[in-house]
Amino acid sequence: MRRWLLSGILLGALWLALTWGLHRALSRGAILGADFWTVWLGARATFVEGLDPYGPQVTQRSQQGIYGRPARPDEDQVRFAYPLSAVVPLAAWAWLPYDWAYAAWLAFHLMALLGLARWAFPRLPAWMAPTLLLFFPVLRDLWLGQYSLWITEGTWLLWGWWQRRRGRVGAGWGAGLALLLGKPQEGLLWALLGVWAAVRYRAQRALWGLLVALVLLVALPMLWQPTWPAAWVRQTYRYWQDNTMPNLVTRWAERALGAGGFALLVGLALVLWGWIGWRWGRGRSRCVTWLALTAWITTLLHPQTNTTAQVAYVLPLWAWINARPTRPRLGLWLAALILPWALFLAFFQGSEPPQVSLGLLSAFGLWTLGLVGYDLYAPPAPEEAR
């Protein structure tokens, strides 16, 4: 008990010191992290000011903070489009001035990423954890304050927890699955994967924990905004209509296959995902194959062409390397570090070029399909299917 208390005090002191340093060096008096700005504004409107975070007043304030003026029709409208349950864990940040909140957010995620990297993947060389900050999607999401980092850290925590407990997980693990739904387009498949894993290993307490957490995450925000689910659905529809960076893969699918091309793409991807999940449940596919396919499909179907969600690639890649940290596998991680930066420098014209996202998507997709093919060729050992 004393050890845990001392560790908590030391980590808290480190967080405060890092927050102070980042505020002084980086965020003082500035609005950095455009994505975190919208989340913080939604949380502040809800918990501090008693406003509707989905209303036009909050949207106008968001645009003023980012652009210094109302957004033009051809620009991102920077609406708060998250389920209100997503900001429940951020309530404490809402009471801080923005520049301090951003510094605290950045400090928290730097510590969480580096700490979880060592905890969830213990067999990796110590030098790998700091290289996370060189991986293009991670660095981009840190700078912009992307909510995707919560999803990434949540999946690492749940993975490490699952591996250490060998599938004997409880209600807390299930509640963690519910928190992944704070950004549904990135967390839904991960949560469904976790549900199937809990069913396979008969982790009934985890399923009950998931159910209770979902009820609380829907009900608690109703204390501030009783009709938030309907408001969120309407805001999500507006977000899709205003999307200024549509997924190029979606466009290509519709050009190649007609108006129903995207629906067909979604259907085929989900059938493949479900088939690999069924094979994993029967011990015929490696767990890392299903992890890789989950990450790839999540980014393949992302509504925008950027690297926001591609932080998801780290979990399956590092889990694969952690199982057997040989030089060829470590070399693949180094290639993953170099590829996006090479594409960025080659195609940069004032903003993030789509070639970065498409290049990573293609390279990771080839690796994932290779894992699928290897599963069909060589059945996994029992520990590989856990």
3D structure, described in words:
This protein has a domain at 245-386. The chain has helices at 2-27, 34-47, 56-67, 91-94, 98-120, 128-131, 136-144, 148-165, 171-179, 184-200, 204-219, 228-242, 248-257, 261-281, 287-300, 314-323, 327-347, 354-377. α5 (98-120) runs parallel beside α8 (148-165), α10 runs antiparallel to α15 (287-300) and α15 packs antiparallel against α18 (354-377). It starts with a helix and ends in a 9-residue tail after the last helix. The protein is mostly helical and 386 residues long.
Parts with pLDDT < 50 across at least 5 consecutive residues: none
Radius of gyration: 21 Å
- Tell me the strand percentage band: under 5%
Mean pLDDT: 89
User: Largest sheet, if any?
Assistant: none
Count of DSSP strands: 0
How far from one another are the termini? 32 Å
Order of helices and strands: HHHHHHHHHHHHHHHHHH
Alpha-beta content class: mainly alpha
Shape: globular
What percentage of residues falls in helices of 4 or more residues? Answer: 55-70%
Annotation field: number of helices: 18
Summarize the structure.
The chain is mainly α. It has 18 helices and no strands.
